[in-house]
Design goal:
alpha+beta; 3 domains; 4-stranded antiparallel beta sheet; 13 helices; disordered N terminus; transmembrane; membrane; transmembrane helix
């Protein structure tokens, strides 16, 4: 391969001393452009160089720009190259204040065995996030806070999926004249899945990074948490949770009209044969009336709906709901209706959708004629598609 030595060591020394404050608070755009150009040079250089020539650029690991060091490490690992100083360098960045999230992603993708498992590592990700939240705030001054402290955590339930979430309560201070008089100020960071910690990643749409710059001294920790809970409730609201995507109540089946008329027509000629066939003429309208009254009773006392990510079932005096995440599978079986639902108290069997939880226990048994199946099934699938284990519709596998 043709040598690439014209990219000399001096080419790369431009950023040897670049503290984060200089980069983000003083140099800003000109330096970001320089960093972009250097990344492009590295990309081109790595595409043309041999492995030995690429390893000669290890002096990059001595620079103070962590993001350029990470870019070089990622190039090495993609080519299955390594060096003694690479792992210590990326581990140091992982607990630093500029690039810890990016370092986590590179390790996760290339060498997951190096990922930290100690939950205490989470403080590094939280503190770096807090510093950049203040820096990037539209009401800020494009400066990093001078101090950041994690004051505690609190747990919440995800209003949509029902998952457990952890939020961090942080306070920070800045000596900038705009904020110096406030001393410590409050901040909320989250959400994180507690079983995934340590991690910089937050669930999609649940990245609640918030500060209103309220001085910490004005309220107790408990009061700050209460304010943050109110903020979360207002931000995520209950609209999506309470939005009804499907709703149905059983309706009187007009097919009964056709059956009643058919029987009436059949019995009508027979009255000329025997008078007692007149009794048969009364059966269709009486049956029709009883069916109609029963249907009205069922309509009044039965309702099925998919509300947000919940399945609601109201059956006479029993109205409950279940999180869709708690449904493991659904079967279509022929079972006897419950007593209040029976027509003339007859123990007839009807096709029913049986919803089971992850322990194999039946949650609901909903007769199929209570649902508008061509609407219910697609909506049910859509509202459970995001789950890691969507409910299995057993009849689709048969």
């Amino acid at each position: 391969m043709k040598s690439c030595n014209h990219f000399s060591t001096n080419t790369w020394n431009t950023t040897k001393n670049t503290p984060r404050e200089y980069v983000y608070e003083a140099w800003k755009v000109p330096y970001f452009q320089l960093r972009f150009y250097i990344k492009n040079y590295l990309t081109i250089y790595s595409a043309l160089c041999s492995d030995q020539e690429l390893l000669k650029l290890q002096f990059i690991l001595n620079w103070k720009d962590d993001r350029l060091k990470l870019y070089y490490i990622e190039i090495l690992w993609k080519r299955n190259l390594d060096a003694d100083s690479v792992t210590p360098t990326i581990k140091e960045i992982l607990v630093g204040n500029d690039g810890s999230q990016e370092a986590f992603g590179i390790i996760q993708k290339n060498k997951p065995e190096l990922l930290p498992t100690d939950p205490s590592y989470q403080k590094y990700f939280v503190k770096e996030s807090a510093e950049f939240i203040f820096y990037n705030s539209p009401n800020g001054v494009e400066r990093f806070p001078d101090e950041v402290e994690i004051m505690g955590t609190f747990d919440e339930k995800d209003v949509l999926y029902g998952d457990n979430l952890t939020y961090y309560v942080v306070r920070f201070k800045s000596t900038d004249p705009t904020f110096a008089h406030k001393d410590w100020m409050r901040m909320l960071l989250g959400a994180y899945y507690p079983d995934k910690i340590p991690t910089p990643w937050q669930p999609t749409s649940l990245d609640d990074e918030y500060t209103d710059f309220m001085p910490w001294r004005e309220k107790s920790f408990k009061e700050h948490v209460e304010d943050f809970r109110s903020h979360l409730a207002e931000k995520h609201g209950t609209n999506e949770k309470d939005e009804v995507f499907y709703q149905s109540t059983p309706k009187f089946n007009r097919r009964n009209n056709t059956i009643a008329i058919l029987f009436f027509v059949l019995f009508l000629p027979l009255i000329w044969v025997k008078d007692w066939f007149t009794f048969g003429l009364l059966l269709p309208p009486v049956s029709l009336l009883l069916n109609y009254l029963h249907a009205k009773k069922i309509e009044k006392n039965i309702m099925v709906q998919i509300r947000g990510y919940y399945l609601d079932y109201y059956c006479f005096d029993d109205g409950t709901y279940v999180n869709l995440n708690d449904i493991a599978n659904v079967k279509l079986e022929k079972n006897t209706l419950s007593k209040p639902e029976r027509f003339l108290k007859l123990p007839l069997k009807k096709w029913q959708y049986i919803f089971y939880d992850h322990g194999g226990n039946a949650i609901y048994s909903i007769p199929s004629h209570y649902l508008i199946e061509e609407y219910f099934i697609p909506i049910f699938k859509k509202q459970t598609a995001h789950l890691s284990q969507p409910p299995v519709l057993e009849w689709e596998n048969e």
